[in-house]
Amino acid sequence: MAGVDMRKIYNFYPIEPAPSPDDLPTGGDLYYECTECSGVVSSVTHIKAACACGNLSGHGGQTTVKDPAKVRVVRGKLK
Ligand SMILES: [Zn+2]
Question: Is residue 74 part of a domain?
Answer without folding.
Answer: yes
